[in-house]
């Protein structure tokens, strides 16, 4: 095992850039390369050093894949926001900052950099400014932007460190940063780049503002007064505290135009990554960031040691260690609302599961929070509340990575908060938000389920044999409804270890008098030949038609496809997501490995008991998988029955009618 | 391959010179003799009809019925299409349906039947026209009343023939298109009503012109020297082929026989009138001839939400054969045939049954599959030619969602 790993590390170093790392190999060769020279050498000689890790070939895959992966992995991606908010330059998207600046990174001379800048920011400088803002840095001052991630970060700081202090700075930050930093930046700009063209000046200004904003956000928790320092110099000392290797080369911003341009480019995505990525989708193979996240987090989860190589970017914790810790902290967690705390613990303990259940529980908790909320003095409700909710969301993600359905619901709440009319009084605003949340639960979840049940029941014919996998509440409702309608059909429930969710479903169905067959997924190819339809639930449907669902769904769908049995996916439209995902590796959730290592109730079957701590044993308990759209015959949503190819249309319509109301 | 052969050139010269025996030489050169003689027999019905008609006469004598379809076919084959309507929806016992309808002062069914008397007017277009008349002659004084009236009329039209997909879809689309306008909100009733009438007229016009648009749109896909396999009789496909022939494109057509309606015979007859080289195949010879075919052209009874089509029995197997031989399958269908249906498999739709005569008495124990249509899933279709443009199957659902959501 070790031999294989090391050999792989040697033979194919590029693999590691994608984000899957080997533990034995030196972590992040690009970093270590750039780190030492940056630490020891003067800033100017450092730019070749950074060149060495950014020749044309290597970094683009790394950065792009990182960025792509991140946008793919973020459960609440704001790419749609960005795209729509950016308006006229739709194709630019959110990837571009890193892309364009990577293009400039190998270039060392100021003139060519200027040329590049001109190329990139040709014409619509305001638009490019918009894009910079959109890509997450100024998000907090940008009401319709993807602010929540930034705020999640910022307010997380607040949660751990100086609570009241940070909260204050948090709310103040978006207000005072723009004008101040704008003034300072232009000043510095002028003295730094006398020859550069105005267009380019705009771009660097944007970068600098973004940069400054980020630094400020990072520092806000510790030092509030430091924001008045000059842009590049003042910030430099604080950098090494955070990320030693990358911060070093960032300290060379001021001296040369080329370097600043390049560094700004290199750091912008880096910073964006830092600020944007919410903990759940953090790349957990990045040690620096994991360390930082640990410092911030409300409670500490012990990470499992042996993780499967391909899934190192996902968090895996030893289960059962956090509850006492959290309980002991119960009275210290002042800003945490008890409702939030309760729901978070329920997530953690697994008491609430299922996409709808978790989403509804979260929304109800938020409703309580909003009801009990009162705006602190000298703050705006919309900003403070958004920050609060972001901090709660990050708490939830620490308990368990949030699902896509929750992500969409959070997005909905935040857009509602952002769109609150300014003239509303606090109580009115709170009432409006509560009504919004309630109508979301009613219309998008409960009513949607009813519509889905109606549609799906029309597809159930007499004599059908319906197969379902695991336990989906919508599928259960469909089966019960069809039974109530008096249709004669049989149900095959396929179940799997370790959750055995199907057994609960089986009990409920049998109690209602349905005739059921229960089997495990090992036998699915055996039972499939008598099945006439397969009904499956989904955690999400992605816009390429891929169905993201409980692990094992893909196998069932593929077997059904091989037997020419139509596969019906039942999924509410609010779970749809514009992300495209081709496999189930880049974004997934790792469950408790003990669950698959142990057989409950069979003390004699304990072959793995002594092996659990072995270095060369890696246990993998995936929670989700992705079913390609080829295996899906139909998706039943609240908008009717659609083919998997039409998911993007629904996503588009849904966004327009729901979120941008 | 055919276009490269010398016989193609030869055929053309022959065709130009000798109009009457246009299809003869190539059918001889390309097909087994007995088949060509049969094709000849149907293409020149006046000369060699007796043999076949005798067969059908015995059949009629055995069963005591002469199917109206066949009479229509025979008459059509003789040369003059007397009633397009009878064969456009042969599975509907028109007389019975007409008898069952109630007599009212203004009856949308009467209006519908009036419109249907026009040859070449599709059933759905007739329904759309009839519904437009409903709006115009309505005495409602409020919008709600008018809408209810419209809904009633469209319901009665739909129940007039529940198996016809295009009728149902056309009615639905009409109500959807007409009533879904912001004009209803801020104008007073009369102007809103006139707006509705305007939209109704527009929709009727669009539907009426649809066939023409499809014919224009699909011309790019017919190239000189291609061989087109056609299944069943579809007026859209005929229009497409007619337009292609009129624009001096050189192509030939294989017509399937289209049992039990023998709709292929009628199409081949129409095509022969246009001087298009045409060859008749029996339905089971599709796979046999598929290697010569460049593309498959079919019409559709209905286009369903998955992007698949519901069409005359046999379309599915032709699409399967074409798919396995990598031949493109093109569907010509007007957009008023887009239906909010989603069949999962062949049995998952309202069956349209029809009597089938096998020529000999069938023992009562033997079951007969009498379904008239099958469902072709979207993965076997290449493109859909509609009046909305040339669409891939997946766009159908997008269009439907746009319209209905």
UniProtKB/TrEMBL annotation, chain A:
Polar residues biased stretches: 95-112, 187-196
Compositional bias per record (Low complexity), positions renumbered to this chain: 34-50
UniProt biased composition (Basic and acidic residues): 1-15, 260-291
GO molecular function term, any single one: translation initiation factor activity
Domain of life: Eukaryota
InterPro entries referenced in this protein's UniProt entry, alphabetically: IF-2B-related, IF_2B-like_C, NagB/RpiA_transferase-like
Keywords: Initiation factor, Protein biosynthesis
Residue ranges of the region described as Disordered: 1-298
Family: Belongs to the eIF-2B alpha/beta/delta subunits family.
PANTHER family assigned: NAGB_RPIA_COA TRANSFERASE-LIKE SUPERFAMILY PROTEIN, TRANSLATION INITIATION FACTOR EIF-2B
Name this protein carries in UniProt: Translation initiation factor eIF2B subunit delta
Organism from which the protein derives: Morus notabilis
Lineage: Eukaryota, Viridiplantae, Streptophyta, Embryophyta, Tracheophyta
């Amino acid at each position: 095992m070790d031999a294989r790993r090391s050999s792989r590390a040697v033979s194919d170093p590029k693999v590691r850039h994608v984000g899957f790392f080997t533990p034995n190999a030196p972590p992040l060769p690009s970093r270590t390369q750039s780190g030492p020279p940056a630490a020891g050498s003067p800033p100017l000689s450092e730019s070749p050093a950074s060149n060495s890790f950014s020749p044309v070939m290597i970094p683009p895959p790394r950065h792009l894949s990182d960025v792509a992966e991140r946008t793919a992995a973020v459960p609440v991606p704001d790419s749609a926001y960005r795209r729509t908010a950016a308006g006229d330059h739709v194709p630019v998207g959110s990837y571009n900052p890193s892309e364009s600046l990577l293009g400039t990174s190998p270039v060392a001379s100021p003139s060519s950099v200027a040329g590049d800048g001109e190329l990139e920011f040709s014409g619509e400088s305001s638009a490019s400014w918009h894009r910079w803002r959109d890509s997450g840095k100024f998000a907090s001052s940008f009401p319709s932007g993807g602010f929540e991630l930034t705020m999640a970060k910022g307010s997380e700081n607040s949660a751990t460190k100086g609570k009241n202090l940070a909260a204050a700075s948090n709310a103040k930050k978006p207000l005072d940063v723009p004008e101040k930093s704008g003034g300072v930046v232009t000043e510095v700009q002028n003295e730094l780049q006398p020859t550069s063209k105005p267009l380019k000046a705009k771009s660097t200004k944007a970068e600098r503002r973004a940069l400054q904003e980020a630094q400020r956000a990072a520092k806000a928790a510790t030092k509030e007064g430091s924001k008045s320092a000059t842009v590049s110099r003042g910030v430099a000392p604080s950098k090494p505290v955070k990320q030693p290797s990358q911060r070093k080369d960032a300290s060379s911003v001021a001296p040369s135009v080329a370097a600043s341009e390049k560094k700004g480019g290199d750091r912008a995505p880096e910073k964006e990554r830092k600020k944007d990525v919410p903990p759940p989708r953090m790349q957990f193979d990045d040690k620096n960031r994991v360390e930082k996240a640990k410092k911030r987090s409300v409670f500490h989860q012990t990470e499992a040691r042996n993780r499967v190589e391909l899934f190192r970017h996902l968090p895996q914790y030893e289960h059962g260690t956090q509850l006492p810790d959290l309980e002991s902290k119960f009275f210290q967690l002042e800003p945490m609302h008890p409702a939030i705390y309760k729901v978070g613990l329920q997530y953690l303990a697994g008491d609430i599961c299922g996409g709808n259940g978790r989403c509804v529980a979260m929304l109800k908790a938020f409703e309580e929070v909003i009801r009990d909320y009162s705006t602190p003095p000298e703050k705006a409700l919309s900003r403070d509340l958004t920050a609060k909710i972001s901090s709660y969301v990050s708490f939830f993600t620490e308990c368990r990575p949030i699902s896509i359905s929750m992500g969409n619901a959070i997005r909905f709440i935040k857009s509602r908060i952002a769109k609150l009319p300014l003239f509303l009084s606090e109580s009115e605003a709170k009432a409006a938000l509560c009504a919004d949340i309630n109508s979301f639960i009613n219309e998008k979840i409960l009513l949607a389920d009813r519509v889905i049940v109606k549609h799906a029941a029309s597809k159930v014919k007499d004599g059908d044999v319906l197969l379902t996998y695991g336990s989906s509440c919508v599928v259960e409702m469909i089966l019960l409804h069809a039974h109530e309608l008096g249709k004669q059909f049989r149900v095959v429930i396929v179940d799997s270890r370790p959750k055995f969710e199907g057994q609960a479903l089986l009990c409920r169905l049998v109690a209602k008098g349905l005739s059921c067959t229960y089997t495990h997924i090992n036998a699915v190819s055996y039972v499939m030949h008598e099945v006439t339809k397969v009904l499956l639930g989904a955690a999400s449907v992605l816009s390429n038609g891929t169905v993201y669902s409980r692990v094992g769904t893909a196998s069932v769908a593929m077997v059904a496809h091989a037997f020419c049995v139509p596969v019906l996916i039942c999924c509410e439209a609010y779970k749809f997501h514009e992300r495209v995902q081709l496999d189930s590796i880049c974004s997934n959730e790792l469950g408790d490995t003990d669950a698959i290592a142990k057989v409950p109730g069979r003390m004699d079957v304990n072959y793995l008991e002594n092996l659990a701590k072995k270095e060369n044993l890696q246990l993998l308990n995936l929670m989700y998988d992705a079913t390609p759209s080829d295996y899906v015959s139909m998706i039943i949503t609240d908008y009717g029955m659609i083919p998997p190819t039409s998911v993007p249309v629904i996503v588009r319509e849904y966004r327009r009618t729901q979120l941008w109301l | 391959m055919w276009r490269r052969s010398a016989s193609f050139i030869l055929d053309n010269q022959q065709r130009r010179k000798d109009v009457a025996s246009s299809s003869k030489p190539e059918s001889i050169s390309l097909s087994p003799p007995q088949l060509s003689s049969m094709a000849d027999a149907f293409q020149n019905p006046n000369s060699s009809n007796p043999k076949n008609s005798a067969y059908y006469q015995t059949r009629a004598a055995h069963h005591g019925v002469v199917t109206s379809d066949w009479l229509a076919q025979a008459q059509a084959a003789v040369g003059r299409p007397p009633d397009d309507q009878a064969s456009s929806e042969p599975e509907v016992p028109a007389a019975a349906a007409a008898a069952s309808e109630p007599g009212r002062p203004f009856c949308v069914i009467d209006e519908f039947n009036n419109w249907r008397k026009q040859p070449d007017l599709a059933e759905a277009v007739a329904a759309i026209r009839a519904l437009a008349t409903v709006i115009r002659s309505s005495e409602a004084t409020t919008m709600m009343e008018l809408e209810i009236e419209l809904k009633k009329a469209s319901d009665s039209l739909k129940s007039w023939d529940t198996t016809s997909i295009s009728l149902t879809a056309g009615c639905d689309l009409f109500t959807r298109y007409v009533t879904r306008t912001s004009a209803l909100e801020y104008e007073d009733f009369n102007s809103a009503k006139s707006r509705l009438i305007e939209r109704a007229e527009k929709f009727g016009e669009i539907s009426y012109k649809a066939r023409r648009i499809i014919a224009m749109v699909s011309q790019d896909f017919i190239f000189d020297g291609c061989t087109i396999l056609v299944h069943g009789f579809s007026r859209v496909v005929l229009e497409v082929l007619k337009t292609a022939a009129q624009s001096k494109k050189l192509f030939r057509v294989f017509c399937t026989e289209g049992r039990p309606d023998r709709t292929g015979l009628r199409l081949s007859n129409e095509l022969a009138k246009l001087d298009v080289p045409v060859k008749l195949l029996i339905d089971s010879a599709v796979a046999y001839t598929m290697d010569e075919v460049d593309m498959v052209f079919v019409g559709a009874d209905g286009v369903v939400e998955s992007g698949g089509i519901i069409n005359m029995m046999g379309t599915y197997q032709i699409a399967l054969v074409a798919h396995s031989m990598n031949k493109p399958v093109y569907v010509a269908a007007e957009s008023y045939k887009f239906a909010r249906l989603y069949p999962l498999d062949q049995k998952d739709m309202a069956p349209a049954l029809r009597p089938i005569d096998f020529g000999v008495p069938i023992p009562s124990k033997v079951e007969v599959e009498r379904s008239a249509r099958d469902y072709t899933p979207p993965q076997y279709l290449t493109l859909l030619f509609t009046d909305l443009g040339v669409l891939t199957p997946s766009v159908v659902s997008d269009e439907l969602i746009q319209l209905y959501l």
